[in-house]
Amino acid sequence: MPEHIHLFVRGAGDFQLGVWVRGLKRAIASVVGFWQPGFFDHVLRIDESYGEKWNYVRDNPARAGLVRDADEWPFQGEIVYIDRA
User: How far, in Å, CA of 79 to CA of 50, rounded?
Assistant: First the structure.
């Protein structure tokens, strides 16, 4: 999507998402020159499906009318199994 990105992130037990996002934003801003302040996070809960969330994110460009089908979006990532243990 042109105005935002979605990331699926998993870290170790001492992982601090805010610190990680700050570093990511600093790195990206050094290349593109700007970054919107703040971020929204959503922790996958036990009853939520990683695959369903992935498909929701994957379909964003089609919902936004940028492509007819999600498979046409050239910037999509790939799903990788994340061990939730």
Answer: 9
